[in-house]
Amino acid sequence: MKKYNLVSRLELTNITKQYPGCLANDNVSLTLMPGEIHALLGENGAGKSTLVKTIYGVVAPDKGDIIWNGKEVSIKSPSVARDLGIGMVFQHFSLFETLTVSQNIELCLSKAQLNEIGDLGERITKLSEEYGLNVKPSRYVHSLSIGERQRVEIMRCLVQSVKLLILDEPTSVLTPQEVSGLFDVLRTLSNEGCSILFISHKLHEVTEICHKATILRGGKVVDTCIPQDETPASIAKMMVGDLAEQDAGYAKKEGTVSIFNIEDLSLPAKQPFGTALKNLSFELKSGEILGIAGVAGNGQDELMAIISGEDERTVNNSISLDGADISHLHAGERRKLGMAYVPEERLGRGAVPDMSLTENTLLTHSEGFIKNGLVDWPSIKDYTSKLIAKYKVKCHGEFSEAKSLSGGNLQKFIMGREIGQNPKVLICAHPTWGVDVGAALAIHQALLELRDKGAAILLISEDIDELFLLADRMAAVCDGYLSPVVKTENTNIDQIGQWMAGTFIGNASVSNKQETTA
Amino acid sequence: MDSDLIVQILFAAVKTGTPLLFIALGEVICEKSGILNLGQEGMMLMGAVVGFLAAYGTGSAGLGVLAAMIMGCIMSLIFAVLVLHLGANQVATGLALTIFGTGLSAFIGSGVVGQTIQGFQPIAIPLLSDIPFIGRILFSHDILVYTSFAMTFILMFVVYKTRIGLTLTAVGENPHAANAIGIKVLRVRYLAVMFGGVMAGISGAYMSLVYTPMWVENMTAGRGWIALALVVFASWRIGRIMLGAYLFGVASIMHLVLQGLGWSISPNLLAMLPYVATVIVMVIISADKFKEKLLAPRSLGKTFDPRQMA
């Protein structure tokens, strides 16, 4: 890190923000020097998002000062933040899909800025070459991959000569290769004096590129450190407080009998921006976890929908359970046969936002809680409160609305609800996405326990570390194709990363039948 | 059919299509901002009755149009406050606005039913109106028809070529993202809804001042609804709205033409043509879900409240 001068880029003092029922930020102070890459760490609900939203002018703090380049400022809106030179790349991208890259960037610029720039397309091309972003101004955003979209967002900040770039979990959607590309860009920016505030759950990334880290817990700053001097485990310890065991290296198991089979499944895309599934075949055995890696939008959602029965199109004999074809059965009938699902979208698919947790439990557990056609409320309420306690779901009680829970807590609840059905086959997408270290551990253990009881688990995730941790066998999807399936101990992150990028496609013999004999 | 008859049919189609063009242009701008206003019929009727009353009282058709524009704007403001400010459901509020406008227009217009006024007179544009066929079809109309031509081209330019159009599209596509980059989403939507109201007002005035210069209860006869279908038919593209409006114009006058040619079909059946055409077009368009999703503004009909962002 180069030191340009002694004036800090950004200084926060005693930022406090109270939400109803929750103190999101409690006297948070933080200093950021020019060119510094600063990590903001903490579990879910620790107050990271609130803090960056305060800096970007989306949230108004109740108390506290913001000092920008030595001067006190009041950031009332994102446009004020941008005028100061603060740019933010959101976790859920804020791009307009039906517009071009160039139009998307133009929308963020004032007339004066546009005049100054002159030819915007030229400027984008030039910056794109300078930073290796590889962004073409005339492309429509809906035709871009997730990684490319992220680069468009970064470009949007660069065009405005940003002095502080805030990135909210930027790597959660990227392939390992894309991550290293992003880090190169960030390092270049840092060398030019741009400060970077980096939120991440992935600790090895933090130790790799961040100069400093601030750790939040319960809205308070609990620690700061120089990540290079620490290990992921020691940082995790600071985040969680009490010791959570990281990376236990769970024992791998071999499945027993084949229970769930996908046979030569091809399916055209249903949505305009969807992915068609192409000749997918794999088998899932009892007592194993099969992990499917892949960058978001490569067919995972479509695969999930056709397996769960949510996509009602039937491809005869493509899906079978216990040897019987179930491809014509609808979602409810498949559940009755012992399948359970944890979809990616928690609110809306995994749970009904406006219904209480108790009612949401009833949705997938109707058997046993309905007697003579009547709902047995006391026992379902009882069951729900046990779920809440077992998975340490933070909420006001079993009658909290699903939408009032934070993403991680709702995820714990949904995982618990589905595991609690003792399914024969559990299909599970991104089980710990956005979930903090402690909760992730609880979910991992629940999944392993379920596997050891003999259930077959299909794990679809973008978190490649997690797949290596949990899965007994692995594969990757790219553009609707499935790579060969291999035992986890026989592969490595490089190979899976390349498969995620599609290197296996075109190898005419992408057939998983050969693998089963291997 | 001789060429004279064809010219007459097409001339009448432009005339009949003009109120549809006005109201559909207003609605497409409104929908591009992500707001579905089903109150078109109500706003149009209020525009028609107020326009007629003002023209009847002052003797000036121009003042009539102005009054109708203001009335349309007021109606759309009621909708905008309920939907944008108070977060009411767009479909329910729009339907309520139509029912409200239908009733209120009948009430305040009851005293002038059957009265007639001097509407706008046709102005043949020198030179242009001398072009064979085209001149008589397009350039021998009244001032409002020419206004609708101009409006179409102005809107095409504004929506597709300017920053204003880009902002409008962005808001309709993803209001959350638009808010995050500092666009005032509600302000854009207020303006778009009000523009829709003004256009519905003019459209109503065209009915009561030009098309049939008189006021009759419920005289718009579902044109507000046809306009909503027209926007989907045109897949939210302005040039196609003009084309669609005139096609519906042809469908609307077909029953007169066919009767003129001596067909012995019940005129009541033939008068259904534009509505049947609407249903058929909607079925065809909706059959291709893929395309519809690609073209429709993404946030159409969804409530957006910037206060719930954090």
UniProtKB/TrEMBL annotation, chain A:
Protein name stated in the entry: Nucleoside ABC transporter ATP-binding protein
Membrane topology classification: Peripheral membrane protein
One Pfam family matching this protein: ABC_tran
Lineage, uppermost ranks: Bacteria, Pseudomonadati, Pseudomonadota, Gammaproteobacteria, Oceanospirillales
Keyword Electron transport: no
Cellular localisation: Cell membrane
InterPro entries xrefs: AAA+_ATPase, ABC_carbohydrate_import_ATPase, ABC_transporter-like_ATP-bd, ABC_transporter-like_CS, P-loop_NTPase
SUPFAM superfamilies, alphabetized: P-loop containing nucleoside triphosphate hydrolases
Residue span(s) of domain ABC transporter: 10-243, 260-504
One GO location term (cellular component): plasma membrane
One GO MF term: ATP binding
Keywords: ATP-binding, Cell membrane, Membrane, Nucleotide-binding, Repeat, Sugar transport, Translocase, Transport
Automatic annotation (TrEMBL), chain B:
Keywords: Cell membrane, Membrane, Transmembrane, Transmembrane helix
Subcellular location(s) per record: Cell inner membrane
GO cellular component: plasma membrane
Its membrane topology: Multi-pass membrane protein
Broad class of where this protein is predominantly found: membrane
Membrane-spanning segments: 6-30, 42-59, 65-88, 95-117, 137-160, 190-209, 221-238, 245-263, 269-287
InterPro entries: ABC_transp_permease
One annotated GO molecular function: transmembrane transporter activity
Domain of life: Bacteria
Listed PANTHER family: ABC TRANSPORTER PERMEASE PROTEIN (PTHR43370:SF2), SUGAR ABC TRANSPORTER INTEGRAL MEMBRANE PROTEIN-RELATED (PTHR43370)
Name of protein: Nucleoside ABC transporter membrane protein
Organism the protein comes from: Marinomonas alcarazii
